[in-house]
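A quick aside before the break. I want you to see a complete sequence-to-structure record at least once, exactly as it would be stored in a machine-readable document. Don't worry about memorizing anything.
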Amino acid sequence: MKYPVYNQQGKKAKDVVLPKEIFGIPVNTDLIHQVVVSQMANRRIPIAHTKTRAEVRGGGKKPWRQKGTGRARAGSIRSPIWRGGGVTFGPRKTRAYKKKIPKKMRKKALFMAISAKAKENLIIILDSLKIDKPKTKLMTGILNKLPIKNISCLIALPKKEESIIRAAKNIPKVEIIQARDLNTLDLLSFKYLLLPKESIKVIKETFLKNANS
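That is the input. The structure line, written in tokens, reads:
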């Protein structure tokens, strides 16, 4: 499929033929949803954590003698039925939320997400993306000339460019990622995908190299 390529001044430079194996496949929303849920679960970090009776402070000593006091038997103030005691079946930060998804499914869902954005013209392809200095003003000037002004955008670089990463770091709604690290969750978290032309080659080499493995 043909797709327009823009320069950094926001003007159309030429057209490029995108590989249909990545940018032109039918979309299965159920598969995309399954992969996104698994990726969100894998990134989840458990925070809630309660202490068991073995972890709360104090109370190795028996509170009172077993018989003769008229009160119920008690062996430790760390008992879960005591105020300040341990918690039974409370949330633990050791809980694992990870979900396994086959590699082929992850790859297919990524291609579907890219294809959906291409179909809706939500992909911006640049002939190149270069700045002289790591200045936010320079990066903002480039983005404002494109149809992504003040709209969330994921920029997939062909390789690590420290100057571009630093320049885009403080721009709201803009995130930088390397093309070889593209994934469905990050892609769907932003409206636009900005690709320097070289990134298409990286995506093709990374994800189609072992497509049948």
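Two observations worth writing down. The mean pLDDT is 91. Residues 53 and 102 are 40 Å apart (CA to CA). We'll return to this after the break.
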